[in-house]
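Continuing the series of single-chain predictions for the mutant panel. This is the parent chain; the variants come on the following pages.
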Amino acid sequence: MRVCRFRFLALLVALLVSVPLQAQMKRKIIIDEDAAGPATTNQQAILSLIQSPQTDVLGITVVSGDQWRDEEVAHTLRMLELIGRTDIPVVPGAVFPIDNRPEFIAHWEKLYGKVVYQGAWNWGHVHGPWEVPPLAEGKPTTKPANEDAAHFLVRMVRRYPHEVTIFAAGPLTDIALALTIDPHFAAMTQGLVLMGGSIDPKTDDPEFRDHPRREFNFWIDPEAAHAVLHADWPSIVDTPVDISIKTRMTKEMIASIGQAKTPLARYIARYAKPAYMWDELAAISWLDPAVITTTEKLYLDVSIDPGASYGDTLVWPPEQKPGLGERLVTINTDLDKARFYQDFIHLMTAPTPGAHFPATKKAATQPCRK
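Parent structure:
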């Protein structure tokens, strides 16, 4: 009996050793993004997480934000085609915030002043929510998943309880809707990683200098952000404006990445532009926590008062928390910029894990050479 047990254990060890360590250690993640494209901080954060050999990206859920949802879905599908990862589901999410609307903000601005950046509502090529304009990178041939983001989020977390990290770098509407479907959703995850909020940024950028508590992801759907920040997450880590504006995608970085000549590198070289690296920092600091050099523990919330503070980020130190269900959040406050840039360039220039490019019909029917 003891010999049989020994043989069983030896066989089990052999099987475990035969599985690559990388595969054993993959971290499951769902990426919830307002996936404007081509390139942009949104797509580049998605790419950072796909490119890491330590991640298992279960899906990309797409919410309106910087652009309207359907346009963002098209950009994401096309990006995945270009890098050979069409196996990753793209799941359409919320088109509109829970309560906030352009009409309300137009009235609000008459009372409290202009909101410069309103994403799909006022920036770039402004169009209706159901229009998908021609894409610079070409029209995708693949289709999104036949499921909505909220149900997909709940289904994946229920399939892999306590294993899935939710990466949310856009408006939090999809996450809030998942909570309405399953009140245990947050507790069943491994944790929430956010890009959002603004506390006290040190900058000459007038958007944040004049309105230091206003950040787009929280502002566009304050009711969703408020609900999400009161849910029972095992942990919340947030990358706010304060640290994000210390980063910058430069022309030199784009040119350096372009030298790799991979499909992904060509995509970045052609479409990326200099900008703050909002979402990339949130993604890479999850992949490589050593990028973050200092953090702070604060209670975090968003104002849903329809007056002058609507959508503002609210924070309290532990000894001053209101005690109304706010959650203690780890706030990333400073970074090792050299390490961050090094990580990002490495991810953007490495071969894409699991990339597959279907053979063309011509190649598939061509006889083999003898």
